[in-house]
Amino acid sequence: MSKKGKETKKLMNSMPEDVDYLRAAISNVIFIGAPGSEDWVLVDTGISTFGDNIRSFAAKRFSSSKPKAILLTHGHFDHVGSLVDLLKHWDVPVYAHPLEVPFLNGTADYPPGNPSVGGGLMAALSPLYPHKGIDVRLWLQPLPDNGVIPGLPEWQWLHTPGHTEGHVSLFRKRDGIIIAGDAFITVKQESALAVLTQEKEIHGPPAYFTFNWQQSWASVRKLAELNPLTAITGHGHPMFGGDLQAGLQRLAEEFDRMAIPR
To answer: Sheet containing 148-149: which strands, arranged edge to edge?
Structure first.
């Protein structure tokens, strides 16, 4: 392979410089903004008790440790767990899809986890996971209905329901990167062993919290059609290039067999 070809392959198998992530125990927190920048956005906030870790990561990466905004892919406990803590320190806007707002302004709760989906210990324990809505109405704003993301002019949000009604994913066309939330993930989240070892595989959304499988399938097809070069999901490690595209296409074609619980 030529030197140029090797460099191209390396770029296709690495994160863009202005995107990074922190694993907050069982879920990922994403930082969008160039190192040293004062202009950055946080996507999701992980489980509770990770506020200090997130602030420390931000302080090391950015010249301003306070983001312009926090964007939520959805409101499940493992994506908003540290949100209130962070807002008390940062006092910044929070953006979410309008259909997700009731779970973020204290007026609605998610259904409890469903252990009957099987797949492992994480699913079996899911009725114990927090499922109550939170109230951050003082900071909460609905995402604009034209796909624009405030503070991220190159990005667009895509409505990818199924895991939740108002689930969104983010996409940047110029380098083909997706932030998928839990529309699809790269680890079998139902299995405690898989979560521990973080074996990289493309999977459907965490089954124990997914409410509409046909919508979820349509969302996976929508994301597969983008032919992404990089994907950061709510759970698991990032994936790149051909492995990502082939795995996502297979999931889109065989979702009923690979993802939907029997």
So the answer is: 148-149, 152-159, 168-172, 177-181, 230-233, 239-240
> What does the pLDDT look like over 165-218, one tens digit per residue?
999 999 999 999 999 999 999 987 667 655 666 667 899 999 999 999 999 999
Q: Taking the C-alpha atoms of 53, 84, 231 and 211 in order, what is their torsion angle to the nearest 10 degrees?
A: 140
pLDDT of residue 7: 43
Domains of the chain with bracketed CATH: 12-142+154-258 (3.60.15.10)
pLDDT digits (tens, 9 = 90+) for 123-158: 899 999 999 999 999 999 999 999 999 999 999 999
As a 3-state breakdown, the chain gives helix, strand, coil percent values, each rounded to 5, of: 35, 20, 45
Q: Which residues pair with 172 in a beta bridge?
A: 155, 177
Residues written for the chain: 262
In order of 114, 119, 120, 122, the CA distances from 193 in angstroms are 19, 11, 8, 9
Beta bridge partners of residue 24, listed in sequence order: 27
Give the distance from CA 105 to its chain's centroid: 20
